[in-house]
C-alpha cells in the first residue's frame, strides 16, 4: 500500500478576453479496490460550477462553462490517493484454454471496443513479421503481453520532442522513438493485433527506484485483458507492470477517450499554456511558481479556438523536462 499526494495544474493565458469557454475534464482518479481516493478537490477560474458524469467506460468526467469575459483559465486538481498491490496472474490454466477464452470474448460488447486496431499500420511487413513470430501455442496471453511490452521498451528510444500529437503510428514506427504516449499507442496495436483486448490508460506515475521515465507527470500505459484474471496493466515506457506506483485517471479505446482536458472558447486570440504536475509521498502546500519560459504558444488562431489534442502531448513532454 502507498499514499500519494498529487497536484495537477493547467493554466491558459490569452492575449485578449475570450468568452463562452466550454470544457471537459477527466481529472477524477478511478476509485476501486486497487485505488482509493481519500480526498479530491478541483478549483477553476471564476469558481465555475463543475457537473460530473460517468462515461461509457465508467470514467468520471466533469464539464464546466465560463460565459463571462476572461483572460486566463486556471484548473487546479489536488488528490490524496491510496494505492494497493495487485496479485499478478498465476497463469496456471492451460494455454490453449486461455486462448480459447480470448477468442470467445472478442465479440462481447464489454470488450469489442478494445479489439480494433489500425489497419494501415497492420499492413507494414515488419510489423506483420513481428506479430507472426509470436508463439501463441507455447506462450499464454499473459506472457505474450509481457513479451511485447519488453519489445517496445528495448526497440524504441525515449526521446522528448521528436514526435508531435499528430504523429502517426507509421511515423513513430519509422523513428523507433518517442514518449510514453507513443510507446503506449504502439503496444496497444500489437496486443490487439494478436487478438487480446487492450485499452489505453491515462494517469500518473509515482516515484520509484526502478521507474525512471515519466514520473511526476501525466503518463500513459495499457491494460490488457488476461483470461480468468481481468485487466492487467503494463507500462512499455518503463517495461514495468502497472502496480501501486501507477495512479489511473481514465481508460478508453485510445487517447481521445482519456485526455485530461478538452475545451473550446470564442475569441480571436493567441494563447499560452502551462501544465505542471507534482507527485509526492508527503503533502505539499504549493508547487513552484510558474515560469514564463514554461509557457507554450498555441499552434492555431481562429474565432472558435479548440484546445483539444495538444494538451496531453505537452503534459507528457514538457512536464518531464522540469
Automatic annotation (TrEMBL):
Residues 172-238 form the Transglutaminase-like domain. It holds the Pfam family Transglut_core. It comes from the Bacteria. SMART domains: TGc. PANTHER family: BLR5614 PROTEIN-RELATED, SLL1049 PROTEIN. This is Transglutaminase family protein. It comes from Confluentibacter flavum.
Amino acid at each position: 500500500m502507498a499514499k500519494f499526494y498529487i497536484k495537477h495544474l493547467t493554466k491558459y493565458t490569452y492575449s485578449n478576453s475570450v468568452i463562452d469557454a466550454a470544457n471537459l475534464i477527466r481529472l477524477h482518479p478511478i476509485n476501486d479496490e486497487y485505488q482509493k481516493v481519500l480526498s479530491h478537490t478541483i478549483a477553476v477560474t471564476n469558481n465555475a460550477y463543475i457537473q460530473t458524469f460517468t462515461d461509457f467506460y465508467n470514467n468520471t468526467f466533469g464539464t464546466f462553462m465560463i460565459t463571462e469575459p476572461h483572460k486566463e483559465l486556471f484548473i487546479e486538481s489536488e488528490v490524496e490517493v491510496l494505492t494497493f498491490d495487485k496479485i499478478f496472474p498465476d497463469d496456471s490454466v492451460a494455454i490453449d484454454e486461455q486462448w480459447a477464452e480470448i477468442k470467445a470474448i472478442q465479440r462481447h460488447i464489454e470488450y469489442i471496443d478494445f479489439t480494433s486496431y489500425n489497419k494501415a499500420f497492420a499492413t507494414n511487413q515488419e510489423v506483420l513479421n513481428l506479430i507472426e513470430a509470436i508463439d501463441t501455442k507455447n506462450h499464454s496471453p499473459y506472457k505474450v503481453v509481457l513479451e511485447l511490452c519488453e519489445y517496445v521498451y528495448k526497440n524504441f528510444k525515449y526521446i522528448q520532442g521528436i514526435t508531435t500529437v499528430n504523429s502517426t503510428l507509421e511515423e513513430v514506427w519509422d523513428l523507433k522513438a518517442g514518449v510514453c504516449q507513443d510507446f503506449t499507442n504502439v503496444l496497444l496495436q500489437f496486443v490487439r493485433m494478436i487478438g487480446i483486448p487492450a485499452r489505453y490508460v491515462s494517469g500518473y506515475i509515482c516515484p520509484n527506484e526502478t521507474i525512471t521515465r515519466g514520473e511526476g507527470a501525466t503518463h500513459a500505459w495499457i491494460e490488457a485483458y488476461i483470461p480468468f484474471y481481468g485487466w492487467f496493466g503494463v507500462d512499455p515506457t518503463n517495461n514495468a507492470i502497472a502496480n501501486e506506483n501507477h495512479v489511473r485517471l481514465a481508460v478508453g479505446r485510445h487517447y481521445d477517450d482519456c485526455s485530461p482536458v478538452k475545451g473550446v472558447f470564442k475569441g480571436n486570440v493567441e494563447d499560452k499554456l502551462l501544465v505542471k504536475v507534482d507527485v509526492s509521498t508527503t503533502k505539499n502546500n504549493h508547487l513552484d511558481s510558474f515560469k514564463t519560459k514554461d509557457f507554450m504558444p498555441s499552434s492555431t488562431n481562429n474565432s472558435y479556438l479548440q484546445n483539444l489534442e495538444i494538451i496531453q502531448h505537452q503534459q507528457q513532454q514538457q512536464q518531464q523536462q522540469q
